Amino acid sequence: MQDESFIDRRIFARIPIGLSIRFLGSNMDSECRGQTIDVSANGVSFTSEESFSPQTALEMWLDLPENQGPFYTRGKVVWSSNSSDASRRRIGVHLEKAELMGLAPILWRENGSK
Hints:
Blueprint: E1 15-16, E2 20-25, E3 32-40, E4 43-48, E5 57-63, E6 70-82, E7 89-95, H1 104-110
Antiparallel strand pairs: 1-3, 2-3, 2-5, 3-4, 4-7, 5-6, 6-7
């Protein structure tokens, strides 16, 4: 149940989509993998076996559908919580800048527009 005092301040709608994501944290030596839960023009939520503290900088590559290639972006971890799978964490990342043009193929396709 959601806390009644919670105020949703999102500007951009979240689009639920499961994409493969590769990422590299500022304190990591090797690339890790995860799966997106949803994306928006200024954020990404994904699951991973890795755990991160808030403010951890990440470089990320989202594997776009239909062979559109990987989409590169950067951001900082805002939150991290347990996922329904005990071996994974759910991570929320705020992107450095609103990625409207780069994420257009996802946003366009998932909203039913062709």
